[in-house]
## 1
Amino acid sequence: MKWSVLACNGMDKAEGALAREIGMQVAEAAEAEIVCPVLLNRAAKRYQDVLASTALVVIDGCGTRCASKLATQMTVKPAHKVLVSDQVKTSGISLETWLRLGPAELAFAENVKDQVVSTLTAETEARAAPAAAEIAWEPPADYLMVPYDQFEFRVPRVGYLFNENDLWVRVRGSRGRVGISDYLQQSLTDIYYFDAPELGSGVEQFGELGAVESSKAVFEIVAPVSGTVVSTNEALIEKPELINEDPYGEGWLVEVELSGWPDEAEFLLDGQAYSETLTGKAAEGGAAGKG
Amino acid sequence: MPDKTFMGVAREMIPWAPTIDYQKCDFCMECDEFCPHRVFEHRNGDVKLVVANPTNCVVFCRACAKTCGPDAITFPDKAETVKFIKSLRCGQGQQT
């Protein structure tokens, strides 16, 4: 698989300078094509062929996420994303506001580059490998329909439990599959990226289980259950729109080996109870707002 | 039961809302433009944005912070908040 890199070149923040450095290092190590954000914005045709024939890595400097927004504007879906300000926070490195990178910043950039390249290598291998045998998760048999204004929100009548942040879980044995509700996907509108959690990482109930991004928002996935991430939906790398098209089926996000089940069910709502919260949510957030 | 609840607990009992670091905030208003719950309000003067309606904030939502370029918005610790909500539920006979 061939990669391309679109990195923030922000010259008003240290994170921007770091994003540019990481972008260059990733491009060198992964033999990826560099997509200059300024030129892309000015002359998109220059990159038409590159973007059509490669998987795009987007490296944002800060939460303004200019590079991501530019990719969205060009209707390109990123295959992998990095937010440098988050990486800085996690690492504990203290950044000077001065834009020139010192030895500590360069070492940090190299670390991030190594992580990204290792993820890209794993993704390339995963795409080449045959799919493992999976549990058969049949689609919902029956939905409750919640009308609101010109919208209608579907909620599976049985088999799905919800937290109040609009995430569902369904359970088979010790395995839980997690996704977002129809209400949430309609509120976020077109989802262009699922930032999946790391395989093998642990999560507590109501902890963070990755994020989904649309042109409207970066929405944190609030875990409905505790456990260890054992699988993420790889189909979403190429087709994140499955989350909008089939939120209770093909658009699932993550599978977790459960560690707090069944006690944690006490903090979740069944289909009926969840459907009763939706009219209020839609009225308060505006059906076009988020939950 | 109160008007607004979260996990069966009255919303006003749950201390979950954004805090703005005015040393970092550049009043770009991206957070306010994004949040549909009217948590923020504009003000005249030096401090142009305040957290006016903290209980409108959706518990565990941190989406406004993710829109913030200068990283000026923080939230309470999530695990501590979960623990606190669970303790309140125990105290009120685990209503759901």
## 2
Amino acid sequence: MANVLVVDDLDVTFSLHQSEVKAVSDLNFTLSEGETLAVVGESGSGKSQAFLSIMGLLAKNGKASGRAMLGDTNLIGMAPGALDAYRGKDIAMIFQDPMTSLNPTLKVKTQLAEVLVRHQGYTLEKAVRTTIEMLERVGIPEPVKRANAYPHELSGGMRQRVMIAMALLCKPKVLIADEPTTALDVTVQAQMLDLFKNLSNEFGTALVLITHDLGVVAGVADRMMVMYGGRCVEQGPTDNLFYDPRHPYTLGLLHSTPHVAKRARRLDPIQGLPPSLEHLPSGCAFHPRCAFRFDRCFTERPPLLPVEDVREKACWYQGELNYEEVA
Amino acid sequence: MAGITGKDATLTAYADALASGAPKGRSLTQDAFRRLIGNKAALVSIFVFLVIMIIAYAGPYFLPWAYDKIDWAGIRKPPDWAKGHYLGTDQNGRDMLARTFQGTQMSLLVAFVATTVSVVIGVIYGAIAGYFGGRVDAVMMRFVDIMYALPYMLFVIILVVIFGRSPVLLFVGIGCLEWLTMARIVRGQTLSLKQREFIEAAKAGGAGPFAIIFRHIVPNLTGPVVIYATLTIPEIIITESFLSYLGLGVQEPQTSLGTLISFGAPVVEALPWMLYTPAFFLVVMLLSLSFIGDGLRDALDPKDR
Amino acid sequence: MQTLPADSRSDDLIKVENLSKYFSVSSGLFSKPFQLKALQDISFTVKRGETLGIVGESGCGKSTLGRCILQLLTPDDGRVLWMGQDIAALPPEEMRKHRKDLQIIFQDPLASLNPRMTVGEIIADPLKTLMPELKAKERRDRVIRIMEAVGLLPEMINRYPHEFSGGQAQRIGIARALITEPKLIVCDEPVSALDVSIQAQILNLLADLKDQFGLTLIFISHNLSVVRHVSDRIMVLYLGRIVELANGDDLYDDPKHPYTRALLTAVPIPDPRRARQRTIDGLVGEIPSPINPPSGCTFRTRCRYALPICAQQRPPLESTGTRMIACHRWQELELKPGA
């Protein structure tokens, strides 16, 4: 299976008034054709910033370095003008709140057709026809009526589908979805996740799903990457990470998540607070909250090393992650 | 409540110690202040404005001539440093610089008093109208609309006729007219503030409407109120100048920048110092207030939160 | 610790009867405003010491219900019996007497705290209004005790809300709700705005405080997993009406209403194998607008099991022992998840 996106040594730094903050450090991963990769983390983990930097959407005071190879082209450091040839065409991104991503003063069909006219050189008629087809494919009922509507006339779930349709119009190789279902009702979310599952079959698109919800990950993702303090701390096939996590943070996340089928007496939260990126702890960024730490963790940051071929983790602890010990 | 954590005695002692010792938080006002100081244009403007204020109040002590002292020998004279008339004299032989200082004092006084009056009335009126909404709001705001529609000059003239030309009246009169816009702004802010959850939380805590208005809403209005007040000061100074130009403002021998400008403008070709001196002070003050207003707006409404 | 009043004849702390709440939505200058039926004919009880979970999607009215119980919104119809007295349309001065027993925790921790007040002032605020007989020193002592109880460092007492993270700010909100030692607390999506690991901390904190203070909780959330975790009984709302109310275990193992079943199968489960096995109930379409709900059973437009009777007649809310259910066909349908 070919690789559509290969990221090497991605760093993202923000300059604040008195200091520099590294939002993302040394990120490495590959995305294969048609696969779904979930990127999991909490606030401050850097998961959104990493992908915003690949799309060239960082805030003015942000700078990215490293490589994000889409085919033969490195997207990092490209001038915005040059990036426009790829954004929306080969690589697309959708966001959490579709209301703010859509122009409220333009009809749906206008906004979508514009993408096709610009990137594929379609005539307006052809673009509108293709738009309506795409709206239908993403599961919007009465697509012609919806296409003629304004964004505020549609419900939340509908708007999110419109966003997905817009992103898929040029049949991109990679679709990045940043918390796409967080703002949706659970039944609508379920429909959306179904749509994501079919993406690779129907469109051949590889999907990067950024989320903090492990339930969403379990339903949809082939592989999973856990981020903490701007770094990847564990990555590998979803099943492996869920049933046999090797990093204490992953274990902690799994045990913090309530499970609708089981009612535990107490959850096992991870003690403490997520780190401030301006004052990252020494050594391993997770050590202040880790139940398995020992002296090396305080002083040396563990590198991301392979574990059994298909997965990697960044942790010094080599023993069993015994659930009881965390409690 | 006693006994919950089992550490009563320790906690009471701790509480006593805390009364003096707990570290002070960083309030929003302090944050805003820091940001304001960081804005160079605003900082320079604050400095300039303060300098002008100091000069206007302290200056007269350093001048040989008082603002109302007539120098019979020096009528309509250009600047003459030997005689102590640093910026010339006017048609009555009074020292221009001294008169300008006095005029600046008067304009500043009018501006601050009128602003205070308008802020106090405007905030209370607008907050009440905005918070209660419904009919109360409708009635109160229609009153404001009517006041807006009425001729402003007419009111001033009526006030002047009834009370005579006293400066105090002038302050109050202008203040009573400026509060209208402040009330509208405050009402708008209140309408959006009262939807916020901490207002609901206050209601859940049993607070009555006036407690909510004065403890929760008004303190959160500081941003727009301060900004608008700073931007109204120039407006007030100009209004006062205008009234004085028309002869409805301060009485002789007291003067204001407006009066001075009104006397200086017709003779600018012959006696330029009569216009330029007060005009210079007026322009510098208005400009610096503009920058301060801008700076305040940036400081109080940061987007990087 | 709480001491139960001597005259508590029943186990019911609060009883809601036929509660309805409507909002007028204007639709232009010349047309009559629409009525948005946020809640219709809601009746249920909350037993002392239990946690009742209220769950539903957008437009179901759960937040409105929480506020109507607390009289932050005035119900248009129905009664709210608190300790035997109907508080539904009490004037504010009368209601104030009850407020120290009825408190609320909000969803967005930072929005629910006045940015210009210090933490100490925020927490002490209800005390000032509802228990004015306390002296300043006593107030301050209570504030410090409650801060400790919720896991906040007392040194933070002079800090401002924006200096705290989301989870800590929510602790401030909890402290404020607890300071008058209430009997009932309505928790309106208290963890939805928080990171996963912090959510777990706050949920544990709420469970501990409930034991410690002898609280009764009404827990409102759209997240079925969270609601299942904290609640004894769960009430499911759809478009302003109760569709089902049952014990947590019963609701999950044996849902009787098609909507409940759809919700349960739609909830993402953090377990890849199970996630792959399950079939989603495939709810068609979206939630109808509360301005113009479907006739008869409001759920029928999305229900696989709808029959003509569902369009003609609204299903009555039937009670069987521990369960309440509003569905014409509940006795015949076999809805166990995984079936």
## 3
Amino acid sequence: MAAAILGLVGLLVSLYLWLWKVGALGALACGDGGCETVQLSPYAYVWGIPVALLGIVGYLAILVVALAGLQPRFAAARWPTDLLLVLAAGGVAFSAWLTYLEAAVIHAWCRWCIGSAGIIVAIFGAVLAGRLRWPAVSR
Amino acid sequence: MAGQMKLFYGALAAIAVVGAGLIFLARARGAERAAPQAVTAAAEAAFEGHVMGSDSAPVTVVEYADFECPACAQFAVLTAPDIKQRLIATGQVRWVFRDFPLEGHQNSLPAHHAGQCAGEQGRFFEMHDQLYFNHGRWVLERRPERRFRDFAAAIGLDLRRYDDCMSSGRYLPRLERAKQDAAAAGIGSTPTFDIGNQRVTGALLYDDFKRYVDRAAAGAAAQ
């Protein structure tokens, strides 16, 4: 449940940043201009795809898998938790790289990006805690 | 358990509604603030670049340039003032500047965005000159936006409108499309000039540039 709620919040944050990126929003609510610096840097794209759009896809995947895992027919299945763990671990690694770029290369902080990094770490923590509660029996 | 799930789905729906509402509000506020300078789809479709000179000039030169590119700066500082004075001001050349912010240039995109925001107030080429003539002052800056704002003040822009434009990022789609259009036109380096139907690259000196213009003018006159 925590993963689904956090995934939805992350999805909304990514959607907000992506809408700004495509020019559909006014000013970013950011404060010191760090968000614009980060969003206008070349690192706001990976293989030509806006990072915010990758965030939308990633968080949407987490939300869908988390909701699927809550369905009664998957109550005993381990795969949703394992898949969530993989998705969240990928997200944590990606966020860590982006945070490193903000700190060491761009020298500017985007509060929304930091917020998103916090969300993905929280998702990873919640899923890992859930995974560790599984009894050590192979199914 | 069923009650707990109901509560969960209720919370999820509430977050979705509140989040979507906040984004909608941000969008409405942005549209309201940007309304006087809204970039309409029709204006965007008709946008061919930043134009200088007479529409009836016999030769049109299209320049594809990147504000961070050193060769473009060299051309802007050494050659462009002569071209402006001797070819554009005299009605021989119509100049079209097309943005081509190159990948990998850290400060290029914000510089081009600052150019669009100056263009919104009718001062694109003034910002263009500030960016090129002060190249060394911002290319390696970690936060070039502050420097661009100084340039905006120096050329007399309304800073409130400029700040609003910069923070809105409303010209990012235009710049993205300009990059794609330049790539589709086969532009591989900057600066590149289409002088009539001749394509030349590099920071040409005035005399060489003039020869291409004369050739294009002769071709136009022969038609």
## 4
Amino acid sequence: MGFADYIQFVLAPQIINGLALGTAVVLVALGLTIIFGLLDVINMSHGEFYAIGAFGAFGLSAAGLNFWISLALIPILMVPFAVVVERLLIRRVFDGDGRHVSTLLLTFGLSLVLEDLLKVVFGPNTHSVAAPVSGAIDVFGVTVPTYRLLLIGLGAALVSGIALLIYRTRFGAVVRAAAFDRHMSASLGVPVGLVYAATFALGVALAGIAGVLLAPLYSVFPTMGRDFILLAFSVVIVGGMGSILGAVIAGLALTQIQALASLVISPVWADPIVFGAMVLVLTFRPRGLFERLGHA
Amino acid sequence: MTGPILQIEKLGISFGGFKAVDDVSFEVERNCITTVIGPNGAGKSTLFNLISGALRPGSGRVLLDGIDVTGLSPRRMRASGLARSFQITNLFAELSVRENLRIAAQMLESKTNALLPVRWSRLAIGRADAMLDRFGLTSKANDLVGSLSHGEQRRLEIAICLVAGPKLLLLDEPTQGMSHGDTEETKEIIRSLAKEATVLLIEHDVALIMDISHHVIVLQQGRKLAAGEPAAIRANPAVQSAYFGRA
Amino acid sequence: MRDQQSKFMRASHVLMLFFLVAALILSAIGAGLGDAFYIRLGTEALIFAGIGLSVDLLLGFTGVLSLGQALYFGIGAYASALVLLRVPSFWLALVVAGSASFVASIFGGLIANRVRGVYFTLISLGLAQVAAKIVYNTRELGASDGIIGVPVVQVDLGLLSVSSDDPLGFFLLVLAIVVALYTILSYVLETPFGRILIALKANERRVPFLGYSVWGARMAAYVLAGVVAGLLGALDPMLRGFVSPELMSFMTSGNAVVSVLLGGVGTLVGAIYGSVFLVLLKSVIGSWSEHHQIVVGSMFMMVVLVLPRGVIGVIHPWLRTLLSRLPPSLDRPGSPVREVES
């Protein structure tokens, strides 16, 4: 196979695949890093919210609902649930300096419950969700499945929207202030409790959206959250916990590494390679690539 | 042993363009009490961090007993005989007072004792008990540090530095937040330290400084403004204007 | 001369003794009734407690949460299985498993101990997941099915011999090993080295200023924890006849952390009680529903929210107060230090 052909038929499609996965990974990591960056909470149940999104897509499509409506509806439905979790559970272990460990453990317990709940409701089997659009588009001679292109576009728009929200709006300024100094912000009249609940809901909703978006591409099964969480945390750690830019860059980079590596070596080594990349980055930059939200 | 115990030569560090400590040089004489003073933000604690190994200097040298110890880690600085206390109390809160002292004294025990029962660390336990006595904490020996009063905790901060017999003590605002009575007691303890070690002190209490210091070094905005005997420093117009502005 | 920490651990020793006695009595009754199921379950719980001890050494005494201790448990198990398939020698399996987990925990520690706090926890998680994935995909190690057909092994203890398929005999052997490891770990925590670990948990930042290497102490603790997990892991294939990649997974580590928290962090004995409780709970729930995870997860959340010191943590302080009212030993501070029998 000639080099140009290799690019056109092997490399480029693989890069696009990596981008599609990468976009979803970025969304999940973004949610995770925002939750850490603002709330200082390690959300071990984040993967389950991703799974809930995917199962939501499955459930609603089985009920005959249009995919795009599900995509809009599911995050909205997840918000009140997220607020309840934040108020009832996370808020309780918030104070004191064991916060990282207590929230980690608490959300770990939550992940066990949520995962099993998914099994209770949907059964232990694997399901699939039909893609809302089929077919492919020719992009510079490379055949790209339409859905993947849409996913990348939607994801990019969403990420840009969030970045704009955090960095260019009043709400964002309030969020960053509360991230930087909670007590000061509170004494300045910022409704910190509301901001916290809203931010947690935003983070969780992002995971849910990613779940819906990826459902047509990968199978939907109850332990999918557990499988995904390591990748999500790797991205967040490499990018810098609490950094939006870091989540984006690390998310795209790690999934590309994974995608390209699978071309030359067996895909089973994908995880070890991503993990190895994380360890490598931490060796030289123990705090990740970028600075934390509000602290840059 | 002759010569100054500590020599600071052109020590400096910047944080992103901001010179926290800038070209500071001085010497500390053996068995003396030298106090570092200066308005807030003068770089005193940063200076201590540079000397004790918590921060690596951007420029300059630190010599302890003539040996270049610049940039050594806190652990190796301690092994070289330099002990440092903290402005914000930094003890082992969930351990007992005696255990705090014992573990600080443990470095005196031979490494081969590391896996023998702690009860057999007679040297460390003995030193800990001696410190309890000297600092008036014997009745609180088995109490958790968290239950001590602020003054007692500040005294324990000093005791922890002293228990393993360092050559040089860096005490960062030891009387910070203390009542008058506590301050007086602590002042006498610090004065007595000069017999067995050298003390480099950061302090704000003018009366205390004047009373026990042999030498005073004034920092302002990261630079050494003046150095000398306490009386001379007090009369120094530059020092006065640094603290009070132009009269 | 007893200090605060020693007094603290006394309560744990009493609880350990109580556990030992209870286990002996219950297993004797069980054997008398001809039961094999519950004795086997108890053996499984004790083996699993090894991971718990490993976790508690790190979390409760060194102040670091590792979510990957099952990795060393699994390595010990695989090493043991591989040995037993060729040479049915109990002691050889134990030695190889211990060595394998020793080496592995050095490598793991070199990677994980570069970072602290949450990063350490997540890397320990990553290490275990990655290793589990690699094993899952390695045909020589049985891939996803694991290694089966581990033969029954005779344990030669000099005077007597125990067979691994003798429920009571093997249970007692495992019990003895767990008690021995508990004793060793308790002893280590009563040494200057152990006290540095405890100081790390109390205030890691101050420790270098006292002249000690944080990294060195944490490496030593990590390796010790790994070997403990690995030694008990070696016993697992002897009990169940097989090993699978699941042994190394995040879920196994996670369950170990759950059991430590349920039992009581920082008591050492809590890990044992917690593991037994968890295994029994899963078995009981498992008999009428597949969904024990919901119960375990909810209980775990309750413990984190309401009972952070675990169940033992409620009993422990009460026991400590009780013990401190015993006739005073010669430990008044200020008295000349004497060589005192404990």
